[in-house]
From TrEMBL:
Pfam families: Glyoxalase. GO terms for molecular function: dioxygenase activity. It comes from the Eukaryota. This is Glyoxalase/bleomycin resistance protein/dioxygenase. The keyword Cell wall biogenesis/degradation does not apply. Keywords: Dioxygenase, Oxidoreductase. Transmembrane segments: none annotated.
Length: 130
């Protein structure tokens, strides 16, 4: 089942935008759409947005449904490293430095960071198998 898009709720759109602008740039992803006066931002590539962040307030802003885990596919180990470096520089917190994760699959190479809202964001590269 292919996934069309994913949306997560954030309490501060400005800090989340700054984080995702920086963290997703090495993966070739940028804002493709904006709604609700900039309170809902869709990130994507040529096909349009497939990852959304939406600012919520009041009771909806409580973190009872967090953390969310989202993995973005990278094209190389170098892209995984660039994602990790950019995410950390943008204020992300380390949750697993770039490296192999053979406990998942033999060809899994990923890096994990917590975004400003505490969500677990990952870049993963699936190396070709021999």
């Amino acid at each position: 089942m292919p996934v069309s898009h994913v949306a997560i709720r954030v309490s501060d759109i400005a800090s989340s935008k700054a984080f995702y602008d920086a963290a997703l740039a090495p993966l070739g992803t940028k804002i493709a759409m904006s709604f609700q006066d900039g309170k809902m931002l869709g990130y994507g590539g040529d096909k349009g947005p497939d990852f959304w962040i939406r600012e919520v307030t009041g009771e909806d802003a409580k973190p009872q449904n967090r953390p969310v885990h989202v993995a973005f596919e990278a094209k190389s180990k170098e892209e995984v490293q660039a994602f990790y470096d950019a995410a950390i520089a943008a204020g992300g917190k380390d949750n697993g430095a770039p490296g192999p994760r053979p406990q998942y699959t033999p060809n899994y190479y990923g890096a994990f960071v917590h975004d400003p809202e505490g969500n677990n964001i990952e870049a993963v590269y699936f190396a070709p198998t021999a």
